[in-house]
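Exercise 7. Predict the structure of Glutathione peroxidase from Thiomicrorhabdus marina.
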Amino acid sequence: MALPNREGQRVPNVTFPTRQNNDWVNVTTDEIFNGKTVVVFSLPGAFTPTCSSTHLPRFNELAPVFKANGVDEIVCVSVNDTFVMNEWAADQECGNVRVVPDGNGEFTDGMGMLVNKEDLGFGMRSWRYSMLVKDGVIEKMFIEPEVPGDPFEVSDADTMLKYINPMASAPRVATIFTKPTCPFCLKAKSMLEDAGITYEEITVGNSGITSRTLRAVASAGTVPQVFVDGELVGGSEDLEAYLNSENTNAA
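Solution. The predicted structure, encoded as tokens:
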């Protein structure tokens, strides 16, 4: 039996027991959805590979773009208890996404998305899907194809963003290799911040990252080394030229 597409219908009316600041707090679907535009994505389980490496992080990363395009909140639902979901959220550092524990599977069952994953020792879990909900009514659903395993083809953040606004562009992200007290590294980070490009900083000499690693990744032995959207830009002077070129083209 095919999983149901519930576009045009209201979300199930459910109360979620959650743990907040060491207190039990009941959260209702009315509170989550009424009067709001909400993107929901649901997945098989906290701490599972695809959910942790791709599904949740990308929604978190694109949250500012969703907000700029009229989305009030991004909600992640999984059939896990609130303690597991809270620990997963802390581990993921997903401050732009609200994680909701559907521990009893009531919401997922009401959506028709509760599936048997006993072969993995999971019991009953959610099928992977995403949806756009406006004032409690489901406008659009992206349901993963019903094939063996855990497909991840259409419920991703980029697909949802493209549906909401085909012209929306994802924010640029950077990775910068640095060393402590390096003035050129400080300059490069300042330039990225001024350009509105978020970055991840990797300090050479920490956590096993060595100059050998830097040479292997960037074919260079000096810092900083900057990557923007996965492409090597280079050192601070290269970054300055790159950003100046972008400004010139924009003008």
